[in-house]
Specification:
- With about 170 residues, this protein is an alpha+beta fold.
- It has a 4-stranded antiparallel beta sheet with strand order 1-2-4-3, sandwiched between helices.
- About 40% of the residues lie in helices and about 15% in strands.
- The protein starts with a helix and ends in a 22-residue tail after the last strand.
- Flavin mononucleotide binds near residues 14, 17, 123 and 126.
Amino acid sequence: MDEKSFLEFLRKRRSIRLFKENTIDESQINEILEAINLAPSSGGLQTFEIYQIENKETKEKLVSAAKDQTFVAQAPLLLVFCANPSRSVERFGDRSQLFSVQDATIAAAYAQLTLHAMGLSTVWIGAFDEKQVSEILDIPKGQRPVAILPIGYENEKPKEKTTRGAKDLLHIIN
Ligand SMILES: Cc1cc2nc3c(=O)[nH]c(=O)nc-3n(C[C@H](O)[C@H](O)[C@H](O)COP(=O)(O)O)c2cc1C
């Protein structure tokens, strides 16, 4: 893919909050994982864990942990990305806290782009109660949920996107 096509690909990725009922099969999940497995990570240690949820009751519990964002339960599949600093604390000390959040974030961003390439859709869910999500999923102590990705086939056309504009992002220091 040349860089123009890549920019066009990025332009077309949008957050989707309404999904068709079609389910996601195991081979699709494996493809997403293959891509995530290629993401850069702190010291190459991949200090994150991913939880797969398809159970309706669990999804509904997550809706209430996520400020009643009902579309979380409407998606056929949820992937929850958690930071796991215990995988690098010996090597990076206190820095492993931040690094593991960054690793989980990059992994989720890779997942978002891979889903887009596969013709699937998602939205990053960050507004949730961390403690409640950890309890619902019985996540081991020390791990920290960073993002919930509800995944499915798009069933809405998002409004046009507004941004700060590319130039506004950069501050040149002399
Ligand atoms: C850290 C983070 C947290 C977010 N949390 C939520 C959320 O809880 N609920 C939601 O509907 N969208 C959430 N979003 C999605 C953003 O609203 C969305 O990415 C943004 O409006 C830009 O739209 P686009 O993804 O279509 O380009 C979050 C995005 C990020 C990166």
